[in-house]
Amino acid sequence: MVKLKPINRKEAALYLGYGKNEPDEVIKNLMDECEGPLMDACHPAFSFGVFDILTCSEEKIVLSECTLTLTGKDIGKLLRGCSKAVLFAATLGSGVDALLRKLQITNMPKALLTDAMAGAAIEQICNDFQEDLQARFPNMQQTMRYSPGYGDLPLDLQKDLLATLEAGKRIGLSVTESNMLTPLKSVTAIIGLRDIEEEERLNRLKDALASGADINAELSIGNCGKEACEGCAYAAKCHRGDRKE
Predict the structure, then answer these.
(1) CA end-to-end distance (rounded Å), the chain
(2) Host H or E run for residue 132
(3) Helix, strand and coil percent figures for the chain, each rounded to 5
């Protein structure tokens, strides 16, 4: 069962357009009145899957044991250097949609505030999931969440992503013909996982290249195969090719 924490008021204020400013007391009091009904209407749930990345290029990303293929240069850049990809879907449930429809008829100011607070609530569910994901994979570093429709990642990926996660059956989340998620207060996303030690090694390698230092120690010379030199981006600076077999 997914537990919803008290609504983050600062996050809700951002959704309302306050930026760094704080809402006045009237708005704060209205938020107090809106929070209880919203919490009652929420039935948060999420579904996810962790897949090994078999192919990662600018043309496509192929995942293990998964028919879903990710396309677009932006997602390729995000997942570059990652060994795993996490597909994720979360929702606050249909009760929130019903509450918002009711408020839009009876009390528009509360409808606007509740909508913003619901946006903050689904963000909290996503953040809590990522904390749990970090605990599951303590030696892996997460990328940012990246959703269909961002950059050049196609929005119509929604349908296949939800099918992969069986989100309709598991959490009651589906997608319309126009690729809108229903219930509305829902999120789908892709998160890459990189090995922390490998990430640190690559950062040291970049620093070594930038400073003109010998990069052989960072490349772990001797561990790569004889054929690995062909096409290697570091071949010109590496002494591996000078070594006798």
Answers:
(1) 58
(2) helix 108-136
(3) 45, 20, 35
CA distance 144 to 191: 6
Among left, alpha and beta (phi > 0; psi -120 to 50; other), residue 73 is alpha
Alpha-carbon gap, residue 144 to 245, rounded angstroms: 43
- Whether residue 90 contacts residue 43, with contact meaning beta carbons closer than 8 Å, is answered with no
pLDDT in tens, 97-152: 999 999 999 999 999 999 999 999 999 999 999 999 999 999 999 999 999 999 99
Domains along the chain? 9-195 (3.40.109.40), 199-242 (no CATH)
Pair of tokens at residue 186:
């829902």
Residue type, position 227, single letter: E
Quick one: which of 96, 59, 106 has its CA closest to 182?
A: 96
Selection from 44, 11, 19, 5 nearest residue 187 by Cα: 44
What are the structure tokens assigned to 208, written together? 């070594």
**Identity of the residue numbered 67:** T
Of 107, 119, 87, whose CA–CA distance to 183 is shortest?
119
How far apart CA 86 and CA 171 sit, in angstroms, is 17
For residue 213 the two structure tokens come to 């230092």
